[in-house]
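User: Here's a protein and a ligand (DAU). What would the complex look like?
Assistant: Let me lay out the input and then the predicted complex.
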Amino acid sequence: MSSPRDSILVTGGAGFIGSNFILCWIEATGAPVINLDLLTYAGNPANLSSLDGDARYQLVRGDICDPELVGSLLREHQPRAIVHFAAESHVDRSIASPEAFIRTNVQGTFVLLEQARTYWSQLDQAGQSAFRFLHVSTDEVYGSLGKDDPAFSETTAYAPNSPYAASKAASDHLARAYFHTWGFPVLTTNCSNNYGPFQFPEKLIPLMILNALEGKPLPVYGDGKNVRDWLFVEDHCSAIRAVLERGRVGETYNIGGNSERANIDVVTSICDLVDELRPQSGTPPRSNLITYVADRPGHDRRYAIDASKIARELEWKPAQQFESGLRRTVRWYLDHAAWIDSVRTGAYREWIAKNYTERS
Ligand code: NAD
Ligand code: DAU
């Protein structure tokens, strides 16, 4: 087979981070993207409606667990890289029903790696050297930190605590093994909590924005003091581009926002922003809606990322501060009522009822 073309194959590109990545990628590089996405509850083709009719973008609805489909897409499009986002991504769902997480995150990553390795092994020398498989992973593989522990670095031992984190850890190990065994050019990124436009409103920030807007209770798990390190999604996208362009194959890169916040502080900031941007005279501040509910089983206390390796080697750093990024995000949800209506289907309402009725 000859050298690959200019295109890339993105998996899970109709989800939150994947759709932001495709929009940023086409704007930054102009190069074509094939998006392989099963369109589960979390996948929304409308996130990419601004690319309707654009010859540089093609959506293929399909499953990363399907080896024939993955193999035929690689042979047909001959991409120069695969950026692998597709996953089951919500920790609470992995506690309620772990099976889908093992299937997509472990089996699906295995199928992709295996098909990609076959495709790569048939490229010419130049094609093989240029090809990259970028495996998008999470900081949750490292487990939980105490208050004064140093942040996760690339050499922190894996200690996943939820079925979601364990499935992502397994996929990271497979990716590592494909590099170690065959020299298959894998890069892995482990990123902290993302927020921004198009995030499905099962996750903390969009859920709280929508509940605050609608005057519903704001369900804070446990004592609200669990800490996450927040990164604006476009900064994650620029980090992935940097790793794809300049990262050393076989390496892992931690990506984070240097923005550790306790959940209760994030929720309070959201309340203040909604009060400011959608004032309601004569009603109490939205922070009165905060309701402490039963904790997530096995809830990791703190995540923090040491992003010094990617800063040093690839000269990447986040562009967005948490406060300005959160303001942009709240504004985005206020301005996109139709998008919100389109994602809050019956299945979504069932999940919200199940998760929060059991906690109250
Ligand atoms: P998401 O749940 O919003 O999107 C996942 C996408 O994958 C959806 O479009 C879904 O339809 C698709 N998908 C699911 N199963 C599939 C299958 N079998 N075949 C093909 N497509 C399938 O997830 P996200 O928040 O955008 O996360 C994307 C990736 O980034 C995941 O791998 C996640 O582990 C990782 N990550 C997420 C965060 C975060 O804060 N959201 C942080 C670090 C890493
Ligand atoms: O750290 C990266 C990870 O961040 C990603 O790998 C995951 O895909 C992503 O979902 C996210 O996981 P978290 O579990 O940290 O995100 P979530 O938005 O579900 O929760 C953030 C924090 O808020 C967590 O401590 C749990 C808490 N929480 C969450 C919800 C949904 C609440 O207190 N109330 C809620 O209703």
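Summary: Residues 186 and 250 are 5 Å apart (CA to CA).
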